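User: Here's a structure from my thesis project, written as structure tokens. My advisor, Dr. K., wants to see whether a designed sequence matches the one we expressed. Can you design one independently, without my sequence as a hint?
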């Protein structure tokens, strides 16, 4: 899920569940608010900011953005703002993967290049995985990214994901073979955060680009 809304496997996301209170020292994820419109409008279709791993899809209309910052969603992805120091710097999202209960796909996009390489993307994904395994009762979280997106692959590995293989020709876009690496982590593999651990401990995202399944469709 990502980049700008992959078609996916035909699953339909459930209604947006309320986000549990999750506040970290540096970064947190939270539902969008109407006042987020300007920053989302500024960044969401900025392909330079998105980097080489952003899907090339039609730009969103102002009305589309107003709908999802108002919590209406798009019927597929459930989105949260990534906030660092009180400023929105990107988004994370999840959706149901096909028809199998308890299986979710996640996506991440840190829009402002100046905010990459600080561990923010990793921490945002960690919080979203906690939400899925906890509040949503999920048992598998999966994510896909392009083979060349080494930074995101390292982040997923640091979060306990296993690379399961290559889905060939999945993206089907000019200038790319369209392959993605499918990764997953199961609930029984998910370690709780160590007491006193820094919110950004572990492998940093090293300027990772948005995960190709992490668009903001």
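Assistant: Designed independently from the structure alone:
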């Amino acid at each position: 899920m990502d980049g700008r809304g992959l078609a996916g496997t035909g699953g339909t996301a459930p209604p947006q569940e309320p986000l549990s209170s999750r506040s970290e020292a540096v970064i947190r994820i939270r539902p969008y608010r109407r006042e987020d419109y300007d920053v989302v409008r500024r960044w969401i279709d900025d392909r330079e900011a998105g980097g080489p791993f952003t899907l090339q899809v039609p730009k969103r209309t102002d009305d589309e953005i107003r709908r999802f910052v108002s919590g209406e969603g798009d019927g597929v992805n459930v989105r949260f703002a990534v906030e660092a120091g009180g400023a929105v710097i990107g988004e994370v999202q999840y959706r149901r993967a096909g028809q199998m209960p308890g299986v979710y796909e996640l996506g991440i996009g840190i829009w402002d290049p100046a905010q990459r390489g600080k561990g923010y993307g990793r921490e945002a994904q960690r919080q979203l995985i906690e939400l899925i395994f906890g509040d949503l009762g999920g048992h598998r979280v999966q994510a896909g990214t392009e083979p060349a997106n080494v930074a995101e692959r390292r982040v997923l590995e640091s979060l306990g994901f296993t690379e399961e293989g290559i889905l060939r020709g999945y993206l089907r876009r000019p200038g790319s073979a369209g392959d993605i690496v499918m990764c997953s982590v199961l609930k029984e593999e998910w370690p709780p955060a160590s007491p006193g651990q820094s919110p950004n401990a572990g492998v940093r995202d090293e300027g990772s680009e948005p995960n190709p399944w992490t668009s903001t469709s």
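When you compare it with your expressed construct, this may help: Residues 1-25, 195-204, 206-217 have pLDDT under 50 and may be disordered.
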